[in-house]
Amino acid sequence: MTAPMSITTPDGAFSAYVGEPGATGPVPAVIVIQEIYGVNAVMRGVADHLATLGYLAVCPDLFWRIEPGIDLTDQTDAGNNRAFELFGLFDVDKGVADIAATLAAVRADPRCDGKVGAVGYCLGGLLAYLTATRTDADACVGYYGVSIDTRLDEAEKLAAPLMLHIAGDDGFVDKAAQARIIAGLANHPKVTLHSYPGRGHAFARVGGAHYDAADAALANSRTEAFFAQVLKS
């Protein structure tokens, strides 16, 4: 088991789960940005899979300011209730600052070759978008990010490639919000948008209520090709 990474900020330190590739020598890295359930089995699974593709995968504990070590499941009412409580307490701006600190720590790690991407889901999808607008990450991917439509003014700061996966029947991102995202970003030279008609929120979360194996595989294949092109070329 790979040892966790410790990230230091002016406010304190927090940990990050690490999926380490078997390849020798420095490799590109991907920061995995959590859903509202913390660094749970699903997020660790994403990191582990990215490691098999040859990336140093790092999943930071972004809820550490509220409570370190959150590890919840979407399979119980208690887990869902606590997750939404944490979502309400979460400071998005500090979360992006913590991702920026993670980015700096990963770039300084001798296992990383200097190129770092980020991929996020749900809350992490929003944070991936803001990582693209506020940091110097090399590439970012967001899955069904919430509230992106309220922050489209930040798109003018996009300098690196961004891919967004939009769930067509997302209960947390309605049709009007999706239309605003598409209208605001479709013609941006750095942005690639993919919509999945009929899919609900978290359609790529394995074991989730709205999981769809076919579209999850399609979205993931697009993400993997995107990272390979930007981070490994």
Account of the protein in words:
The protein is of the alpha/beta class. The protein has one domain: 3-Layer(aba) Sandwich (Rossmann fold). It is built from six helices and eight strands; from the N terminus they run βββαβααβαββαβα. The protein has helices at residues 41-52, 77-89, 92-108, 123-134, 175-185, 213-231; strands at 5-9, 12-19, 27-33, 56-60, 112-121, 139-143, 162-167, 191-196. The chain has an eight-stranded mixed beta sheet, with helices on both faces. Strand 3, helix 1 and strand 4 form a beta-alpha-beta unit. Helix 3 (92-108) packs across helix 4. The chain starts with a strand and ends with a helix. The model has no long low-confidence stretch (mean pLDDT 97).
Features of this protein?
alpha/beta, 233 residues, 8-stranded mixed sheet, 8 strands, Rossmann fold, 36% helix
CATH T-level fold name: Rossmann fold
**Low-confidence runs of at least 5 consecutive residues:** none
Number of strands: 8
Determine Rg (CA atoms, Å). 16 Å
Overall spatial form: globular
CATH superfamily: Alpha/Beta hydrolase fold, catalytic domain
SSE string, helix = H, strand = E?
Answer: EEEHEHHEHEEHEH
Name the CATH class.
Answer: Alpha Beta
Strand content: 15-25%
